[in-house]
Amino acid sequence: MKKIILITFVGIIAFLLSCDDSSNKSNDSSNDPVSEEQAKLNESLNPVAIGLTGDSFGTDATIAHNGAPLTTDETIRDVYTNLSEGESIRVGTIFTKHTFLKGEQGRKSDLVVTFAMIKREAGYYPDGGDWEYVKMPNDGTNNYLQNPNGKLPTTEDNINRGKIVACASCHQHPLAGSDFVFTY
């Protein structure tokens, strides 16, 4: 009787050890590229330029912010990155730009939209500097405590994310500096 119990016990242990635990992995967000990318966006909080207003290049620009064509003098912008000071741009670099309406006495008012640029591998979008451009309108659907830089749209949303010509054309500005990156 002891042998049967021992053989049964060993059989159960062997069965349990051989089971594939992939059902548990599907609930693990660390294996989910969308969750990983959102986490990287959320961590991109190193300030680059805070309180920008006006046009640093001496020419007025009108930028569509959440459907409203606002000039740079009508907005205040805060720019952040995931780079540490002195670090070079590489694949995975993220820049975000929070765009606020300029309120009374030139102070920040409502957040209108957050933009992001995510550096992709060479060949992703050569005409856009191999950056993925992202637009995240502040339409009330994002919890900014949970996602301080906005909620990434799905990769299928090619209006607000991807190889956006309007973004790339502005970032090709001859005074923009290197790698399509500048604060405006």
Set down the secondary structure blueprint.
Blueprint: H1 2-18, H2 22-25, H3 33-42, E1 46-52, E2 62-65, E3 68-71, E4 75-81, E5 94-102, E6 108-119, E7 131-137, E8 161-162, H4 165-171
Antiparallel strand pairs: 1-4, 2-3, 4-5, 5-6, 6-7, 7-8
Descriptive notes:
This protein is of the alpha+beta class and 184 residues long. It has a single domain (36-180), classed as Chalcone isomerase. It has helices spanning 2-18, 22-25, 33-42, 165-171, and strands at 46-52, 62-65, 68-71, 75-81, 94-102, 108-119, 131-137, 161-162. It has a six-stranded antiparallel sheet, with no helix packed on it. Strands 2-3 form a two-stranded antiparallel sheet. Strand 2 (62-65) and strand 3 form a beta hairpin. The radius of gyration is 23 Å and the shape is globular.
Précis, in short:
By secondary structure, this protein is an alpha+beta fold. It is built from four helices and eight strands.
| SSE ordering | HHHEEEEEEEEH
- Indicate the multimeric state: single chain
Q: What overall geometry do the principal axes of the alpha carbons give?
A: globular
The CATH topology is: Chalcone isomerase
Q: How much beta, percentage-wise?
A: 25-35%
Count of helix runs: 4
Q: Main beta sheet, described?
A: 6 strands, antiparallel
Mean pLDDT: 76
Quickly count the domains: 1
How far apart are the termini? 81 Å
CATH-derived architecture = 3-Layer(bba) Sandwich
Low-confidence stretches: 1-29
